[in-house]
Amino acid sequence: MDECRDGGIGRRSRLKIVRSQGHESSSLSPGTMQKLTVVFDDACPTCTVGKNFAQAHDKASALDFVGMHSERGQTLIRQHGLNMSDSAFAFHVDGSRTEKSQMIRDVLAHNGVIGFLLGLPFRIPYISDKLYDLLALHRRHRTKSVEHR
Fold first, then answer.
1. Sheet with 36-40, edge to edge strand ranges
2. pLDDT tens per residue, range 76-124
3. DSSP annotation of 130
4. Which of 61, 65, 90, 122 could disulfide-pair with 103, CB 3.0 to 4.6 Å?
5. What whole-number distance in Å separates Cα of residue 107 and Cα of residue 90?
6. pTM for the full model?
7. d(CA 78, CA 71)
8. Nearest to 88 by CA among 36, 143, 39
């Protein structure tokens, strides 16, 4: 029996595989984050603080914030018929669009563990959009959607 273990048939030169396995972890690496364009209310101080926080924690540099009062923001609002008094919006590379709590989840997904923890309340069904509406109440009286021309 010792002969079989020490030098017989089936002997292994090592116990572990030496080469790298190359698997992704459960959190996305910076190169895998999808670019996200966010149209937000740049006249709202609270929204601007949120934008600055998200940009500071965006490890992949994949967030592109566009103020709704900028020329580019006005163009996006007209092209997509966005009602900015109801929500901010996020556009993915594939052309899909999200709003309200899904938009917040999409933005926070770029913010690592901090974003995951902050995004947890926005993952509760039904409550998530209501929570967004509550947070957005402070700006509703000032923000007006751009009329379609």
1. 63-67, 36-40, 89-92, 97-99
2. 999 999 999 888 999 999 989 999 999 999 999 999 999 999 999 999 9
3. H
4. 90
5. 8
6. 0.68
7. 11
8. 39
